[in-house]
């Protein structure tokens, strides 16, 4: 079943869309591919550093600065502009997001015949960015106009699957899409939606983050806690993951509330590196948990 555009885009958080549109190959020359242990790809080291700063370290501020270097030095790499689109989305600069999405598409087209798997993944990302731009700038009434783009996302994912259905990068992207659909369509099978993430996706810090988000939204905190702990094992310094764990502990309630506050405060202690809108959200949630008292940072 294909998800209605209205449901799809009205439910996407900035952090989730950032992960979704940016989940593509990252590997500089002579370095390990964070997605694959075989058939590794090699791209610019500046891009890899920006990706890891954003999603492994949770250092949004440094990642944005690093992207400036990547744009200057590795302008033919589609991931650079997928990451750039995610930062524009996070700051609600939807025109900037659209411009970056067009660069994603141009660079993806240039990959055809060289690496078709990555080409189709990036084409799917560019379609998603453009559809998001339409709905965000024109409102949910524009959903019918965005629907063909959403269909194209699925078509390009299918083309990538026909090349290598077990590819870790592909299954990370597909897994986030499937998880998102399950979160907005009550009749969806959550475990089936998470199958791509669980079985083949990588890197672990994005794989388990997605799974934790899905279980959190399904109000299954015990499973969510196990997943976020696995994500933290591979990205222990990420304040976004600390915040997510705090949310899950708060959901469990009871004796877990003091620990939830501690994880909120751990995230706040790294507030200088966070997306400002995310930082404001953590502050407010921690204040709510603490009964209206500001939490320490």
In brief:
It contains 16 helices and no strands.
Secondary structure elements and pairings:
Layout lengths: L4 H6 L3 H9 L22 H11 L4 H14 L4 H13 L3 H18 L4 H23 L4 H21 L4 H17 L5 H4 L1 H6 L3 H14 L3 H14 L4 H14 L4 H12 L7 H14 L8
Task: Give the tags.
297 residues; mainly alpha; 0% strand; globular; disordered N terminus
Q: Structural class from helices and strands?
A: mainly alpha
Q: Please state the overall shape, judged from the principal axes of the Cα atoms.
A: globular
Number of helices: 16
**What is the count of β-strands?**
0
Return the string of H and E elements: HHHHHHHHHHHHHHHH
Ranges with pLDDT <50 over ≥5 residues?
1-19, 21-32
Biggest sheet character: none
- Summarize model confidence as the mean pLDDT: 85
Our measurement of the CA-to-CA distance between the termini, rounded to an integer number of angstroms, reads 45 Å
Backbone CA Rg: 18 Å
| Percentage beta strand | under 5%
Give the helix level as a range of percent: over 70%
